Amino acid sequence: MRITTKTNAINHTWLGIVSLCGILIAPLQNASAQSDQDLIEVARSTVSADRKAVVVATMEFTDTESKDFWPLYHEYRATMDKIGDDRLKLALKYAKLYPHVSDEEAKALFETYTRLEQRQVEQRNIYLKKFCKVLPAAKALRFAQVETRLDVLVHLNLAAQIPLTPIPQTK
């Protein structure tokens, strides 16, 4: 089986994303050294540049498609970044509580988590419909796939760093 140069470039880009996603989590372990907002800014800037590089490498836009896509993409990412910021704030709040998370705190964290998940799905659906209006169907689908893969990488890296909530021992 022969691997093309373009496929190699895309694979290297994905490997870079996986490697750099680790940088997203590293600052969370030193939460006391910086403000939550500083940590969020570092995480956002790292992932944002890498996301855009993957989109460029995988989408193969024409000039016309590019002209219509990028303004919408920046609007979409700004919306998704706000949700991502809130998700990181939630993780930082959890980190400060861990391992002593009361039932009341767990309930509040859970409610925030489910609201964020719902907001992300709603906003993603709104924007994916908009991307279908500025891109051919196959490219809109490819973009949705690329975004899903990037989101999974970020979520997996974050999840790998966050320990499960301890369950109180009953006697």
Number of strands: 0
Q: What gap, in angstroms, lies between the N and C termini?
A: 60 Å
Percent helix: over 70%
Shape category: elongated
- Cα-atom radius of gyration: 18 Å
Count the helices. How many? 5
- Give the averaged pLDDT, no decimals: 84
Low-confidence stretches: 11-15, 17-33
Structural class: mainly alpha
Strand content: under 5%
Order of helices and strands: HHHHH
> Largest sheet, if any?
none
Structure description:
The radius of gyration is 18 Å and the shape is elongated. The protein is mainly α and about 170 residues long. α3 (about 65-95) runs antiparallel to α4 (about 105-135) and α4 packs antiparallel against α5. The model is unreliable at about 10-15 and about 15-35 (pLDDT under 50). It has 5 helices and no strands.
Q: Short summary of the structure?
A:
By secondary structure, the chain is an all-alpha fold. It contains 5 helices and no strands.
Secondary structure elements and pairings:
Elements (H helix, E strand, L loop, with lengths): L4 H21 L10 H24 L3 H35 L5 H32 L2 H25 L10
